[in-house]
Amino acid sequence: MILIVELLILGAILLGWWFVNDKRSYKKYPPGPPRLPILGNILQIASESPFPSIAFLNLSKKYGEVMFLKMGMVEAVTFNSPDTVHEILNHEKAIDRTRSTLPMIEARMYGRNLGIIFSSGEPWQKMRRFTIRTLRDFGFGKAASMDVVVSEELEKFTGYLQKQMTTEGVVKVDGLFDLTLVNVLWRLVTGVNYSMDDERILELLKLSNDMIQNTKFSFDASAAFPFLWHLFPQWSGKNLQMKVVKALQAYCRVTLEYNRKNCDYKSNPECYVDVFLQKIDETRNDPESEYTDDQLVLCLLDLFQAGAETSSKTMSFAMLYVLIHQDI
Ligand code: HEM
User: Fold this and answer.
1) pLDDT in tens, 173-187
2) How far is CA 4 from CA 7, 11, 275, in A?
3) Predicted TM-score (pTM) of this structure
4) Which of 193, 194, 189 minimizes the C-alpha distance to 136?
5) How far, in Å, from the CA of 307 to the mean position of ligand 1?
6) Is residue 42 lining ligand 1, measured as CB closer than 6 Å?
7) Domains in the chain, ordered, with CATH?
8) Distance (Å, rounded) from C-alpha 32 to C-alpha 192?
9) Are 67 and 77 spatial neighbours (Cβ–Cβ below 8 Å)?
10) Which of 113, 163, 220, 295 is least buried, going by the fewest C-beta atoms within 10 A?
């Protein structure tokens, strides 16, 4: 009995010490809900909503538009209104944005600061500007040039729908637009155009979706406690994620090599990859150059994942919405 009381007192002292220390450590951080040892704010977030964005919004009503949260070992500041997001993104220090430190993201970037989505600082700014400029040069976002590509893909898409309805009688909406949207984007990015039943690209899209959908508890837990990712590779999703990352990296590298060998990129660049290859050649002797094969692989990987999944899910949602609300 005495031992239990002693343990309880020790526990209370340790807890008190932890709270004082925690308050001191995060004195200069934005306000946020009180944290628990080890878990941080995980319980408060989970009790608000299964969707983090909604949980953040609810909590921010109490703690402010700029809020500090600790999710296990991960520290985060959330910006919870369009105005604060706008202000932060336009701040000169936004260029130093530090992105996720998840081990999977590190592995995806070959442990370096590459690509657009997860990179930071000057390399991010350079790659982002180069990518937007180059895609625009090839007609991205311009109705006059996009219309031709979109109409061609639409024709293929409706042909596929008709065939599917004749043979199967049903069409699965989830993932229905994946390949069509990749095709539209990929014409400008790589110059390649896939048929609607290209098995290799369909498999890659499926893998990519599997990875993005893989948000089960173990994935969240290893995001909050990254050491779990290494410790339990099957349970945490590490094995699946690494399989997908390696497959996508390999696919992007093959694409790059294909254009290098088969396209007249030096004198007649016809897509984003071609212009990037020109840049690699031009800056080959500059050890500081951002334009490298690995950088191109990561930019392709980012465009593939950011461009396909987002647009495709938006289209699937819109289609289902119109089906359910036929009166609108
Ligand atoms: C309906 C379609 C789309 C939606 C809803 C969407 C949504 C988003 C969001 C929310 C972000 C910010 C993510 C973050 O910073 O954490 C983002 C970033 C990004 N998106 Fe999209 N996106 C769409 C289409 C596209 C397309 C078609 C492309 C390719 C051309 C693309 C390429 C990118 C890239 C490269 C980034 C990273 C930008 C950066 O960090 O500087 N997205 N997208």
Assistant:
1) 888 899 999 999 999
2) 5, 10, 71
3) 0.87
4) 189
5) 7
6) no
7) 2-90 (no CATH), 124-324 (1.10.630.10)
8) 48
9) yes
10) 163
